[in-house]
Amino acid sequence: MTRALIIIDVQNDFTEGGTLAVDGGAAVAGAISALLAAHPHSYPHIFASRDWHDAEGGNNGHFAVDGEPDFIDSWPVHCVADTPGAEYHPALELPESTVHILKGQGQPGYSIFDGVDAGGEKFGELLIAAGVTDVDLVGLATDYCVRASGLDALEHGQHVRVFTDLVAGVAAESSEQALAELAHAGAVLATSELVEQV
Ligand code: VGL
Fold it and tell me: 135 by DSSP, 3-state: which?
């Protein structure tokens, strides 16, 4: 068994003060850092994703360019590549060894499996190359990118745990639905208290 921690989109635009702020986002950033500080050896592999959208073109309908966002399929402009809104939240402290994944260049890109590392390698290939069998999923937002990433991880044959104390969502109802869907598809809903001390 080889475990990875997967940290989804803990970025300024998804946290308080950002253009698509999720309530509790900043607290999630701090809590993930606290977990990593308390368990520095528990994860041989850590991946962190960032939404990394194009400034121009609406990213294939993802940005509501000509109208109001519906906050389901179309969104306010957020996480434009190389802008402060796309940076990790300052409370997120990541180890040197973290593999950084960028996704959503010109497309919605909800799932980390749509993303690539700095060398252009696909996330799914990186997981296989690292021999990862089990993933713990945390980050933002529960009802969109965490949901999509978790469902994809299950489809890729991973054992998936979602730490419900380290996620935050756009809306309460859709977040609850997303967690139920993940559980139904085979994910274990747990809290980060489960992380083994190594
Ligand atoms: C996300 C809405 C729009 C997310 C991304 O990171 O969950 N949500 N784009």
Answer: strand
| Residue 145 Cβ < 6 Å to ligand 1 | yes
- Closest among 142, 66, 60 to 103, alpha carbons compared: 60
Closest residue by Cα to residue 94 from 23, 5, 198, 193: 5
Task: Give the model confidence (pLDDT) of 152-163 as tens digits.
Answer: 999 999 999 999
Number of Cβ within a 10 Å radius of residue 110: 22
What are 176's two structure tokens? 């609850």
- Select the CATH number that applies to the domain covering 3-194 from these four: 3.40.50.850, 3.30.450.20, 3.30.450.90, 3.40.50.720: 3.40.50.850
DSSP track, 59-114: GTTTB-TTS---SSS-B-S--BTTSGGGSBPTT----TTPEEEEE-TTS---SGGG
Which residues are tagged catalytic?
A: 9, 103, 145
Indicate the top mutation candidate among 152, 170, 182 to test ligand 1's pocket, ranked by most ligand atoms within 8 A of CB.
170
The minimum-distance atom of ligand 1 relative to the CA of 108 is 9
Is any atom of ligand 1 closer than 6 Å to the C-beta of 52? no
pTM score, two decimals? 0.98
pLDDT at residue number 140: 98
